From TrEMBL:
GO molecular function: N-acylneuraminate-9-phosphate synthase activity
InterPro entries for the chain: AFP_Neu5c_C_sf, Aldolase_TIM, PseI-like, PseI/NeuA/B-like_N, SAF, SAF_AFP_Neu5Ac, SAF_PseI/NeuA/NeuB
Entry's Gene Ontology BP terms: carbohydrate biosynthetic process
Gene3D superfamilies found in the cross-reference section: Aldolase class I, Antifreeze-like/N-acetylneuraminic acid synthase C-terminal domain
Pfam families, alphabetized: NeuB, SAF
Domain (AFP-like): residue spans on this chain: 285-342
Protein's recorded name: Ialic acid synthase
SUPFAM superfamilies xrefs: AFP III-like domain, Aldolase
Classification lineage: Bacteria, Bacillati, Cyanobacteriota, Cyanophyceae, Synechococcales
Length: 342
């Protein structure tokens, strides 16, 4: 998967997506400051949410109160959205800092707008993971798509995946739990492995709504190629997603530690050059465990393995020594040599 020249696969470090979402509360200046902080903390990609409320919801939404908000979902989104000109400004500001800018459209009008301003990829949230008409519409643009799969079974994801494949679109599937915040008791890191097995052609990642960086880092260790987390300039800010958002310090930790974990999980099982000095003393060498006379047929009572490991016969060859005859007297605790044995 390639987004704006950034290759996303298991051969590259995970793409860390800092999701502004609606944390800026509809204030373009706060949004731009968040982007600045995300950039300085090492993020490569900013994700926004594009809301055109009248095309996104019906009047019934004014009576629906999300569990993480004290207002109706209509009012939350209405007051926290940027207008078209502000989003264009935010996109330019983000890209001028060298970051990738993508967004989640929550309606057909939002998808058309994002395509018109030439975003390089689309993010589709878990709530729209089974919105087949919207998925078909977004797929018609032919751009890469990242789909969060929270609240949906593997079977429910088959149809969106088939739409992506029919349109020959590069796509990623993100494991996700849609509780804000998500306690570890309900988060499924196993879902990453399940998605890899069920959809081997997909890039697989993790959209994290837990508190702290640790479950995201666990996802990296399981091979997640994308990590998405809400981002805020301060956790003291009000907003429905602030409780599960990372601040600049946590983002920096996530970026740096994910690179270390990625490096470690791709190292083969072998002795490294840096371990050679330790290898010399940490192993055991076969030694005489008593005075051994010339002509003795060596038995277990005669030998043992002790440090350092710089002797000729390593402890691993213990069984190969048994039954050999000595050519000379060997002192207690003396390292054995092959030339001393028949």
């Amino acid at each position: 998967m390639n987004i704006n020249g950034r290759e996303i696969n298991e051969k590259n470090t995970p793409l860390i997506i800092a999701e502004l979402g609606i944390n800026h509360g509809g204030d373009i200046d706060i949004a731009k400051n968040m982007v600045t902080l995300a950039a300085s903390s090492g993020a490569e990609c900013i994700k926004h949410q594009t809301h055109f409320v009248e095309d996104e919801m019906t009047e019934e939404a004014k009576d629906i109160y999300p569990p993480n908000a004290t207002e109706s979902i209509w009012d939350v989104i209405k007051k926290s959205s940027l207008n078209k000109d502000e989003e264009i400004e935010l996109k330019k500001y983000t890209e001028d800092l060298g970051l990738i800018y993508i967004s989640t459209p929550f309606s057909r009008a939002a998808a058309d707008f994002l395509n018109d301003i030439n975003i390089p990829a689309f993010k589709i949230g878990s709530g729209e993971a089974s919105n087949i008409p919207l998925i078909r519409h977004i797929s018609s643009f032919g751009k890469p798509i990242i789909l969060s799969t929270g609240m949906h079974s593997l079977e429910q994801i088959i149809e969106p995946v088939n739409i992506f494949k029919k349109n020959k679109i590069d796509f990623a599937l993100l494991e996700c739990t849609n509780s804000y915040p998500s306690p570890p008791e309900i988060v499924s890191l196993q879902g990453i492995k399940d998605l890899k097995k069920a959809f081997p052609e997909a890039i697989v990642g993790f959209s994290d709504h837990s508190i702290g960086p640790y479950i995201s880092l666990g996802a990296v260790a399981l091979g997640a190629c994308i990590i998405e987390r809400h981002f805020t300039d301060s956790r003291y800010r009000e907003g429905p997603d602030i409780s599960c958002s990372m601040d600049p310090l946590e983002l920096r930790l996530l970026v740096d530690r994910s690179k270390e974990i990625f490096t470690a999980i791709n190292n083969p099982k072998e002795r490294t050059l840096q371990e050679e000095d330790v290898y010399k003393f940490a192993r055991g060498t076969i030694v005489a465990d008593r005075e051994i006379k010339k002509g003795t047929i060596i038995a277990e009572k005669d030998i043992w393995a002790r440090r350092p490991g710089n002797g000729e016969i390593a402890a691993a060859f213990y069984d190969n020594i048994l039954g050999r005859k000595t050519k000379k007297d060997i002192k207690y605790n003396q390292q054995l040599r092959w030339k001393d044995l028949i």
